[in-house]
Structure formats: structure tokens, C-alpha cells
């Protein structure tokens, strides 16, 4: 947009028409003349699995912070997700959670919820909404399906477009000139290599890998259930499970374990893994319920952040968002929420800035990266002890203190409304980690005696999932 008179200015190209790509289009609407989305896959007619989003067979919950951002960007989108079958689970009322110290109390708090549906339904709903908004906007949007981005145009200081190859017979290549290229191509992003081809240093990369593997299987419950279940890993049993409703009356069971405890994908192995969690409520459900799909595994769950927001991290004309810039251990359910929060940040920058101006891309990169800071800090903070399990030097005093405080805080959050609310504000991405150091939270964590959580799941309290 020309900030002087509110007229859309400039051409943008978005690499990847997945969730982050579509949210980026939503952010750019009415601020640029044209947006061309380059998507490698062809979208299926129905919301079903597609190859370009391999993680989409796994449970994907959408947290409060992401919900706020999505509504700011696409008002009414949450209602559209619920109309498409998504379930809303309020925390802690609709989720029975076994923390390492015992079961969390269950009550109506009214602060946080997660929206849950299968990923194909989530993506198709958001895509339909963005394309409907595009049709009414001043921005011309084109989606090139079956087209793969293969390189950047321009030089080390400014990206001027994208090289695209058709996936049809002939594999014709073409160039798409652009004032701004937004890379939303997910965890397999090739931008580091493309930058090197332009003579630019790839970004510094940080990796914290707890070595977790996932297995997910869809079930149809034999009896109605009124709450999801989360069994968290603990030092003596570094395995966990989440059992959560999605659309059409189905539930997804996701199993996770660190190295040496990776969940299997064969039917007997899945049941054995659930039994090994020593949680009869969940085990009995899974045994009684009908599996409606095979179990699928996923291994690459590391936290990986490419520091494009560092000074000189991106040339003019290029912004890298969502998984293409940063992935999180999926156990914390943050990636889609961060995609929405980053898109809102992109919208805020593009609505006041001139995307053709020098420094615009760096400003947009800083804003979108900042939107993921809390998610990154919490995920790597929680994973570092596991990631460091095989390191040769023992953790230093600051890290030991942090781990000690966090352990106490998690145990207190299971039984204490004040600490529980603060803990959820962070994990549902509506507050920064400083919230955990506020006097009320810190004093209760440090001074009140450490007590175990409930001995068993609070299943008899009424809840209304959905
Ligand atoms: C096992 C697992 C479970 C997860 N669970 C959760 C959860 O519970 N909650 C949550 O919020 N997040 C979760 N996540 C994270 C979430 O999946 C990602 O954060 C999210 O998909 C990021 O969206 P994206 O659009 O950046 O990438 P993607 O969804 O991966 O989309 C990338 C798109 O780019 C296209 N593409 C790729 N390369 C090219 C190219 N060269 N040219 C053209 N197109 C290209 C692909 O076809 C695809 O459409 C989970 C992740 C994993 C691995």
C-alpha cells in the first residue's frame, strides 16, 4: 500500500499455498496490487490429505493466541471452522491432563481453549475464506497450483522475483517478477540454498532436538466422551499421549516418545504403547474404540529456528514466515498459531510500510519472527533437558535453576488456579514468559509446599466438549 494515499502498490509472490501461505495472502489483501501464490500440489476437491503437508495426518490443535490473531485477520473464521466441524475444548475443563506431578484439577476458567479438527479441514476452511475475501478486495490474487518454486531472482542485496517450474509434462520454467517474495513453503524451505546461489550468506540456524517421534491414529469412540486426555511425559516414563476429538465424531490418538521410546505404528504396538503409560482410563477407551485409519509416524520434530531476523538476515524483497523460518516440537501445538500471529504481524507492517522501500523486508521479518518468540522460548526451554541428555558437559547453574523453577511451577500449575492461569497464558500464547515471574506466581511457586496433583483423572465432572 502506498502509505501516502492508501492505494495498493506493488506485486507480491507467496511460495507455498498451505496455511501460512494463505494467511500471508490474507495479510496482504488491499495493501498490494497483486499476489501470486505458487503451490507445488494441486488442491484436492475435498479436504483430504495431500503430499505437500505430510504432518497433516497428525493431531493439530489451535491455541488461544492463534485464535485471536486469526480473528483479527479474518473476522468470523473461527465460526467457519466450527461450522466445518471443528471442536472447541476449553482448558482446563475439557481436557484431563496428567502432568508429571499428577492429574490437573478440572474447572471452568474461561480464559483459554483449543480448536481441534483435522488439518485438511482447517486448511481448506482458511483457504476458502481467504480466496473469498480476495475476490472482494482491491488485490488481484492468482493461485498457480502444480507449480514449484525453484529459485529466487535478483542479487545478493535485493530479491526481484521467483523462478517457478510447472509440475506438468514438459516442466516449463518461468520467471515471476515481484517486489516482495514471501517464503511460506514450510519445513522443507529451500531459501538458505537459494540465498547462497545469490551470493548471500544463509541464516544462522539454531536446533534443539529432544529426539521425539510421533504416531497418530484416528478412532471412532464406542461411547460418548466429554473430555480430551493428555498424558505428559515424565522423567521415569518419557512417553506421552493426547486423545482429542476432531470433526465427524472421530478422535485422534497421538503418541509421542523420546529416543528409545519412539511409538510404533502397528496396531498391537499402538495398544501396548498406550498400556505402558499406566493410564487405565485412556487404555480402556482406545481398546474399545474402532480404529478408522492406519497409524502414521513422524520423526522430524526438532525445534529449528533460522535467524532471518538477525541484522542482514534477509535481502530487500524477501520475507520468510512460519515453518520455513521456525519449526517447534509439535507436542506443544504451536506452529499454526504462530503462523496466524506472524500473518497478523505482516499485515500490521504492510499496512503502514511501503513494500518497495529499502528495509521493508527486514522490518517485516523482525515483526513476524517476534510473533514466534514466546513459542520458541517455551518449547526450547522445556526441551533443552531432553535435548541435552547425551551431552558431555553437565548443565550450568543458570540452566539448573531454570529447570528447578519450571518443574515446581508446572507441579503447582496442576493444583493452583493462579499459577495454572499464568501457565496457560504462556502455553496458549497470549502472554510472554515474563508472566511466570510476576510476584503472585513466583511467590506461590517458591513458597507454597510442593504437592502432588490428583491421584486419578477427574472424569466425573461435567464438561461440554464442542
Ligand atoms: C507431527 C506434527 C504435529 C503438529 N501438530 C501441531 C498442532 O497440534 N498445532 C499446531 O499449531 N501446529 C502443529 N504442528 C505444526 C504445523 O504443522 C506447522 O506449523 C504448519 O503446518 C506450518 O504451516 P506452513 O504453511 O508454514 O507449512 P505447511 O503447512 O507445511 O505448508 C507448506 C506448503 O508449501 C508447499 N510447498 C513446499 N515447497 C514448495 C515449493 N518449492 N514450491 C511451491 N510450493 C511449495 C507445500 O505443498 C505446502 O502446501 C505440527 C507439526 C508436526 C510435524
Jot down its keywords.
about 20% strand, 13 helices, FAD/NAD(P)-binding domain, 5-stranded parallel β-sheet, 22 strands, alpha+beta, Alpha-Beta Plaits, single chain, 8-stranded mixed β-sheet, about 475 residues, binds flavin-adenine dinucleotide
Characterization of the model:
The protein is of the alpha+beta class. Among the domains are: 11-60 and 118-207 and 302-376, 3-Layer(bba) Sandwich (FAD/NAD(P)-binding domain), CATH 3.50.50.60; 211-298, Alpha-Beta Plaits, CATH 3.30.70. Helices cover 33% and strands 22% of the residues. The protein is built from 13 helices and 22 strands. The chain has helices at residues 19-28, 64-73, 77-83, 119-136, 191-197, 267-276, 280-288, 335-352, 360-370, 373-387, 397-413, 417-427, 439-447; strands at 11-15, 34-38, 61-62, 87-91, 95-99, 102-103, 112-116, 140-144, 147-154, 159-166, 173-177, 180-183, 205-208, 213-220, 228-231, 239-245, 251-257, 290-291, 296-298, 303-306, 318-320, 326-327. Strands 5, 6, 14, 15, 16, 17, 18 and 19 form an eight-stranded mixed sheet that branches. Residues 15-21, 38-41, 52-53, 55, 58-62, 148-149, 184-188, 214, 298, 322-324, 330, 333-337, 339 line the site of flavin-adenine dinucleotide. The site of flavin-adenine dinucleotide (FAD) has 38 residues, from helix 1, strand 3, strand 9 and helix 8.
Amino acid at each position: 500500500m502506498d502509505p501516502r494515499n492508501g492505494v495498493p502498490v506493488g506485486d507480491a509472490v507467496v511460495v507455498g499455498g498451505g496455511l501460512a501461505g494463505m494467511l500471508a495472502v490474507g495479510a496482504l489483501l488491499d495493501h498490494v496490487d497483486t499476489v501470486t501464490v505458487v503451490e507445488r500440489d494441486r488442491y484436492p476437491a475435498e479436504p483430504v490429505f495431500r503430499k505437500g503437508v505430510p504432518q497433516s495426518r497428525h493431531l493439530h490443535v489451535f491455541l488461544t493466541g492463534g485464535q485471536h490473531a486469526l480473528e483479527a485477520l479474518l473476522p468470523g473464521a473461527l465460526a467457519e471452522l466450527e461450522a466445518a466441524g471443528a471442536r472447541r475444548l476449553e482448558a482446563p475443563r475439557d481436557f484431563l491432563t496428567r502432568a508429571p506431578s499428577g492429574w490437573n484439577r478440572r474447572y471452568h476458567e474461561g480464559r483459554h481453549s483449543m480448536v481441534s479438527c483435522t488439518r485438511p479441514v482447517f486448511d481448506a476452511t482458511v483457504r476458502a475464506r481467504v480466496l473469498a475475501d480476495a475476490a472482494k478486495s482491491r488485490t488481484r490474487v492468482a493461485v498457480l497450483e502444480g507449480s514449484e518454486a525453484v529459485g529466487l531472482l535478483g542479487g545478493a542485496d535485493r530479491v526481484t522475483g521467483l523462478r517457478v517450474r510447472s509440475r506438468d509434462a514438459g516442466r516449463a520454467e518461468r520467471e515471476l517478477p515481484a517486489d516482495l517474495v514471501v517464503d511460506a513453503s514450510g519445513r522443507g524451505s529451500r531459501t538458505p540454498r537459494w540465498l547462497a546461489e545469490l551470493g548471500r550468506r544463509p541464516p544462522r540456524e539454531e536446533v534443539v532436538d529432544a529426539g521425539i517421534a510421533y504416531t497418530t491414529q484416528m478412532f471412532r469412540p464406542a461411547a460418548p466422551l466429554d473430555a480430551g486426555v493428555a498424558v505428559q511425559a515424565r522423567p521415569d516414563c518419557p512417553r506421552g499421549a493426547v486423545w482429542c476429538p476432531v470433526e465427524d465424531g472421530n478422535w485422534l490418538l497421538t503418541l509421542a516418545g523420546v529416543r528409545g521410546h519412539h511409538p510404533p505404528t502397528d496396531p498391537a504396538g499402538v495398544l501396548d504403547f498406550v498400556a505402558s503409560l499406566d493410564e487405565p482410563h485412556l487404555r480402556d477407551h482406545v481398546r474399545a474404540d474402532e480404529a478408522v485409519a492406519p497409524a502414521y509416524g513422524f520423526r522430524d520434530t526438532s525445534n529449528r529456528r533460522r535467524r532471518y531476523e538477525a541484522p542482514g538476515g534477509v535481502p530487500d524483497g524477501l520475507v520468510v514466515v512460519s515453518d520455513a523460518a521456525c519449526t517447534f516440537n509439535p507436542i506443544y501445538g504451536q506452529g499454526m498459531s504462530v503462523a496466524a500471529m506472524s500473518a497478523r504481524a505482516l499485515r500490521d507492517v504492510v499496512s503502514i510500510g511501503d513494500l518497495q522501500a529499502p528495509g521493508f523486508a527486514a522490518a517485516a521479518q523482525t515483526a513476524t519472527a517476534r510473533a514466534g518468540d514466546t513459542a520458541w522460548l517455551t518449547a526450547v526451554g522445556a526441551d533443552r533437558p531432553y535435548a541435552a541428555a547425551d551431552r558431555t558437559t553437565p548443565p550450568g547453574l543458570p540452566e539448573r535453576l531454570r529447570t528447578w523453577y519450571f518443574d515446581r511451577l508446572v507441579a503447582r500449575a496442576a493444583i493452583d488456579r493462579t499459577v495454572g492461569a499464568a501457565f496457560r497464558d504462556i502455553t496458549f500464547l497470549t502472554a510472554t514468559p515474563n508472566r511466570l515471574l510476576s510476584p503472585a506466581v513466583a511467590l506461590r511457586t517458591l513458597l507454597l509446599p510442593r504437592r502432588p496433583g490428583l491421584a486419578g483423572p477427574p472424569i466425573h465432572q461435567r464438561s461440554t466438549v464442542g
